[in-house]
Amino acid sequence: MTAKIADFLRDSRPATPCLVLDLDVVADNYRSLTTALPSARVFYAVKANPAPAILALLVEAGSSFDCASIPEIDMVLDAGATPDRISFGNTIKKESDVAAAFERGVRLFAFDCEAELDKISRAAPGSRVFCRILTSGEGAEWPLSRKFGCEPDMAEELLLAARFKGVEPYGVSFHVGSQQRDLAQYDAALEEVAGIFKSLSAKGLDLKMVNMGGGFATKYLVDIPTAEEYGRAIHESLLRHFGNRLPETIIEPGRGMVGNAGVIQSEVVLISRKSANDNRSWVYLDIGKFGGLAETMDEAIRYPIHSEHDGGETQDVILAGPTCDSADILYEHAGYQLPKALKIGDKVEIRAAGAYTTTYASNGFNGFAPLKEYYI
What we know:
With 376 residues, the chain is an alpha/beta fold. The chain is built from 10 helices and 19 strands. It has 2 domains: 23-258, TIM Barrel, CATH 3.20.20; 260-375, Lyase, Ornithine Decarboxylase, Chain A, domain 1. Helix 2 (23-36) packs parallel to helix 3, helix 5 (95-103) runs parallel beside helix 6 (114-123) and helix 7 (152-162) packs across helix 8. 30% of the residues lie in helices and 23% in strands.
């Protein structure tokens, strides 16, 4: 937690739960990524946190944007970006939305099947298209396999077909999975992509761009690679597989751009046990899965949780949210411990919570208000 966030929480005493995000950290993350990968264009994954203050900061810094919907495209345009800085990166789009994006000036579209390619060719003629391939997602704390992408052989066929559908077959994309700490996964994916490039070049089609997606991690409970380590590993892989014919490259950081910039302050609503000899306390917070912590599903993302009693004796706990839904349990098996001195009414800080919290928060499930947001 930054000093600026600590000062805000102390001086403003906002109602909980709330997210407080330090924009200076976002600016630092952008600089770190562009320094580590100077030849790659950054397309911020808007879904991670579309707050106008973040978008305006990144527009000013020179970022481009990966958008998944027309509302996201409009938010980016409203923040001052030009359409040439937008990629419509969702592979599942209504044809009417493709047309709406094209009307707004967007000319870069993702696809992963023939039906999606046909939509783009009809609704966005002349646009650049890139085909997303499947990856294993191995090593990622939040895998993104199966739903998006196609096998490399199919990608080749689709890109060859694109030449005759009135669009420009521009490149290939992949995503190694969100919160990816295994740098070897980028190498494996780039080896697949290089094979596609070489195969298509032999058939008369020279692709130009590789979209390496996201995966850049935020530090939660375990150490992560630095931006420099990501950059070095990716650059070495590009040289290994493409030699001197390096393609244009794109990266789509989301979590790695904003995750460590935000802290959620929450209040302890209840502490209880289920029996006299229960060896773990249940700690209920005023935020849960439906209030913004959806990524605790299957205990995949494990947020650092702190309180004013840190440093004292601890006990094993089960952490849960406030709603009347039995699925609203955050951590039961992850081995969380909190101070024994923690009591009802105390505040806790859920750190590294700047990504995928406000956007996952429900709009009033059980009558609880959406997560409040402060950008400082």
